[in-house]
Amino acid sequence: MNPPQHASSLADQFLHDLHWVIESPSLINSAPVIPPLSLDAIDPDHLTSVMVDPQSRHVGSHRVGYYFERLVLYWLVHLRRVEVVAHGMQIKDDKRTLGEIDFLFRDEAGRLTHWEVSVKFYLYHPQHALSGPLSGPLGGSHFLGPNARDTFERKMGRLFEHQLPLSQTHLPDVEVRQAWVQGQIFYHRQLGSVQLLPAQMSPDHLRGAYLYQREINELQHHANSRFQVLDKPYWLAGPMFNAADPNWCSGPEMADTLHQHFKETDRPLMLCQADSESVQSESLPNESTETRLKRRPNTKRIFVVADSWPLTDSLS
């Protein structure tokens, strides 16, 4: 998915992604209580100007995490209107950097709050065990990132054992410490249901599917679906369906695109699939962004990985 160029399309995408950030279910159990998003309070032109401001932190970055942070920052500053004391604040001990605090803000009750925020995408891979070729740094998890060195348990350990305790040690005035993690877990149809989730993973998490390179031709059987490759950083809500958008293609066309991709690289790709119901519910003339967001199309997410995954060193 190429980033939308027209100002109104860009605003729609940012609003769509902001809605996803605030309203989608948490990936973890210990999520903070999030006030609902009021779409009426958002000025699309202002949101667009802030997100493309060249002075903004990490502007232009293709990293999904940076994009996610910028949307959270907009929500805190311009919608919740809380006092953001720091964003991306480095904690140092003498000349050594110990880590970085994502957000330090005073909430509506005046409590100094430390938030660590993250958006993550993991694939369920139950064959991955404590022994064998993936032991060592990859051992102990059945939930692997597109870069298999990134696991759900490793991320949770980093969040709760290192990042959040930074404020406890170095900022004693902090009253609230919380992790806010959004994202999605992808499952392969042949692997069955999850027998046991990690202790910190919410059972209500968003779910998608994944395919191996050798299974790409299965997409050709979805005659009534349209597909689009999602480019970073637009992995959050995905695109609104538009029949005139050339980025959407048929199943056979997408299969051809994927075959060519994996001839050149092992890099995983994320797809968005719009089914026949979504195809029939494209935007109407003069329809407001709020109406479109409330009538979100029925889309699915699919990760496509190389046959060598997770033994590949490909980065997500």
From TrEMBL:
Pfam families xrefs: DUF1853
InterPro entries, per the entry: DUF1853
Protein name: DUF1853 family protein
Origin organism lineage: Bacteria, Pseudomonadati, Planctomycetota, Planctomycetia, Pirellulales
